[in-house]
Specification:
The structure holds two protein chains of two kinds. Chain A has four helices and two strands, in the order αβαβαα. In chain A, 62% of the residues lie in helices and 8% in strands. In chain A, helix 1 (4-10) crosses helix 3 (43-77). By secondary structure, chain A is mainly alpha-helical. A two-stranded antiparallel ribbon of chain A has the order 1-2. The longest helix of chain A is centred in the middle third of the chain and has 35 residues, at 43-77. Chain B has three domains: 17-74, no CATH class; 81-122, no CATH class; 127-265, Sandwich (Jelly Rolls). Chain B is mainly β. The chains are: A mainly alpha, B mainly beta. Chain A binds chain B through residues 4, 7-8, 11-21, 33, 35, 60-61, 64, and chain B through 136-144, 146, 148-149, 174, 192, 209-210, 244-247, 254. Strand 1 of chain A pairs antiparallel with strand 10 of chain B.
Chain lengths: 92, 266
Amino acid sequence: MRIVEVLARRYKNYEWSLDGTPLSEDEYEAGIIWYSKTGKPTWSELVAQYDDVMAEIESEKTAVQAAKQTAYEKLKAIGLTEDELKALIWRK
Amino acid sequence: MAGAGSKLFTAGSVLTADQVNTYLMDQTIMKFSSTSARDAAFGGAGEATLSEGMFAYTSDTDTLWFYTGSTWEVATIKPSIVDAKGDLLVGTAADTLARQAVGTNGQVLMADSGATNGVKWAGRTLLQIQGATKSTEFSNNTSNLVYTGLQVAITPLSTASTIYVSFHNTVNGTDGGGQILTRIVYGTESGNTVGTELMSMTVLPEPAVDARMPMHVAGQQSVALNSTSTHYFKVCTRHDDRDLTDTYYFNQYGRSLCSVWAMEVL
């Protein structure tokens, strides 16, 4: 569990830092420093949002992959060869 | 003939003035009060002639000399010229010797035309190395300069030493909206207290979505603490701006073994 994903997505407008990758409330409390005056979530609140956030990340990844595949097919359809596509993808 | 060498006199042998001069006078060690008195004793009317192989002793400096045929040279170096274990004899000019006192442990002898003896003991001595590593992640979503949890403590052994600090770590962010600063700060307090800045490195995270490519950041700097108090060199990080839509990661996923090292050199 990377609870920091919840913080990074749901609490990005607050100022905080997190040392480590806490797996428990104690580890979270030991590692979190909340610089904003309000808004510090509890461990339970973060855990409750974790599945949704991970699903959101997976959905975004899937969308990116789908977009890549669509772009790939479109480029191939207009005549780019596999080598040209590789060169395009792995350009330096 | 000056310095006639060896002759065995037998009973009844006649000892001539020439033999006295060449076997005895030229081959004994003559004593003078000074080199001036020595030099004045030869070559004049009624005086002996200098010849190769003569020895003389001058009492003002307790020095033994021998004549090369053209000049007087010091025959022996007195042990009292050195005073301590490791002392050396060096030339300070043509035909001139002097004592070079031993240096301190670990130093090397270095040529220096500006030094009295033309050489000096110098060099840098590594007194100690301290290091610390961090293999876990640190996440930063603030423009405050924050301590990453990676620090090294060093207690200098000398107030005259220099502390060399080096570090390496990886950083990356969720977006390319700003710059990630890695700073090394130091002070006498451990932990979250941010001290004096020693160096700062800045990187721009990869802006592509999900790229999050970790970037290696390393640096090296030196400082003279002039103290023997324990100091802490801490790796800190901060956003360069207040774009809080990004989260920046130090050693994301524990991908690397981040480290900081402090070396004390005298």
